[in-house]
Amino acid sequence: MPASDGDALRLRLEWIAAVALNLIAALRVVSTYPVFSQTWDEPSSVSCGMEWLDRGTYLRDPKHPPLGRVATALALYWRGARSTAAVNQLEDGNALLGWHGQYRTNLALARLGVLPFFLFACIVVWRWTRWAIGPAAGLMALALFSFLPPVLGHAGMAMTDIVLTATLPAALFSFSLWVEDPSPRRSLWLGTTAGLALISKLTALAFLPVCGLPILLGFLRVAPFRHRLRGLALAGLATAFVIAAGYRFVAVPISLRGGESHPLLDQMPVSSSPARAMVRPLIETPLPAGSFFRGAIALWMHDQDEGHLNSFLGKRSRSGWWYYYAVALAAKTPSAFLLLAAAGFAFAIRQRKPDLRWRAWTPVWPIAGILAAGLLSHSNIGIRHVLPIYAMLAAIAGAGAAGLYRASRVSAALCALLLLWYGVASARAHPDYLTYFNEFADGSEGRFGLDSDLDWGQDLTRLSQACARRHVDSLAIAYYGSADLDRMGLPPWHPLTGGERPTGWVAVSIFLLKLGTPGQPDAFSWLERFPPVERVGKSIRLYYLPSGQTSDR
Question: Which end of the chain is more exposed for a tag (fewer CB within 10 A), N or C?
């Protein structure tokens, strides 16, 4: 058989294996839909996406771009749902999820909207690793990525995180290809993927330069950077077009606020009246894709001024911890995966041929870039904010697995053992991929963070089932989430306040149990004196408190 025919056959077999791995991963993701109720931000995603589809505007929450949000609303829009008259995106999103009384169906349809992005991310990981390291490493990387619990967990949520996990690696891979050959076709593909990343999540504004620059500098050690300005200009035009199209080519001002006092002006280093007079027209003049720039500024102001409350390694904070993402990733990533990634780093360092070494390092440099960007972030509420890092880590782990398999019989046996360990860990995580912690990190009580890594409001369906199973006739509940409790099939309930000491059945989200409410950080800590009757999922504690046992004495 000619070599070319053999290569074609091998590539065809690789595609079959890739499709099979994608299908297995997709089935695992879809099987989680009935298990979990909505997470905090899913109604907002659906609402803002519906605004884009139904009204042609994108004004409600510009801190998050439209690509993923439109995907979450698309199936509902096709079914006939439309934006409501609700005053905010949370109420509107809850109304859309409850449309025609089909909450579970509507939520599943919203989550299906982002599933293609997860599958696309799997293909990007495979193709990038195959190009950078080799065919065996490519398939290994795809298998490892598609079995990662944190990735599977976020792939099952109607959110923007998995969307960026697909588009950012696609943009970085496109950039790597373009650096080698800045042809018009590759320039257009680079611009398109960069634009898609920017309308997936605004953190791409930080991730793209800090990840792309090291790739470029690495190439400069191998070959000169010549004749690329024309290709770069073409890529820039394609990026601008994709961003403008993402916002429907609607021209709006960066700010809709008027008057002398303006939050945006107050944040800028312009104190004199003439300077403010010069800046004001820039933020009040309609611009193409003005919502994109408004969202970027709003996100920056939110990160600098507001922050998010979380607990990490026994400490509470709104401004975060510089070491948060490194430690959280180590805790939430399967141990066998980390060991394979360490082997992959070792093989990349040992590569001696400059051209092959540069390719092998293209997935490595973005890892450092994303972690460096994370050091500056004050929004430390979950690894979802650096989720794209797993695409590059999977490439390195795939290289480690392939290298170990080829090195010797002993290392091949070690590779098989690590893969078996990893597969068992991934299977045991089902369906609670979102709240997974590895064997050496017990995160069940919030030691490695609460919020979206543990309690994102996702276990109300399980609470309803637990109440039905235990014949609960009334319930006091302190719930951390965005769901409309009247639609969740709960028994008669009332909200549990910080000063209340009820008897009977009590349910409390672990986030509130550990962090309380604004102004009352220990509002529910008294409940920790009692053993819960049941841990509902990973995020809710269910208690039964007989009369006379809830006094403070």
Answer: C
